[in-house]
Design goal:
This protein is an all-alpha fold. The protein is about 80% helix and about 0% strand. The chain is built from three helices and no strands. It has helices at about 5-40, 45-65, 75-100. The two termini are about 15 Å apart.
Length: about 100
């Protein structure tokens, strides 16, 4: 009975790592689709375009505020790099913490 709370915490942290990894994977695709669609001048009243903007703008807007203005919007590329970092550093770290608690 003594190790039960640590086992629960271990499972929680590994589950958190799995969910985080899945969310980051979905965000990668959503940002990619928005970037590709932006090349063809989409109809802003289209519900799919509106959904993509609502989901990605909270991620891309802060990046745009920090970056100096350039001729091209590089915020999706920076977002991809941040997501990649989180997937390669934070997710494995959470898994390692979770497994070490067992």
């Amino acid at each position: 009975m003594k190790g039960t709370p640590m086992f629960i915490l271990s499972n929680f942290i590994t589950a958190l790592a799995s969910v985080l990894n899945a969310v980051l994977g979905v965000m990668t695709w959503v940002i990619f689709i928005r970037a590709v669609i932006s090349w063809v001048s989409p109809d802003p009243s289209n519900p799919i375009v509106q959904f993509l903007e609502r989901v990605t703008e909270p991620i891309l807007a802060p990046i745009r505020r920090v970056m100096p203005p350039m001729g091209v919007d590089l915020s999706p590329i920076i977002a991809f790099l941040i997501i990649l970092f989180l997937q390669k550093f934070l997710v494995p770290t959470l898994y390692d913490i979770g497994f070490s608690l067992r």
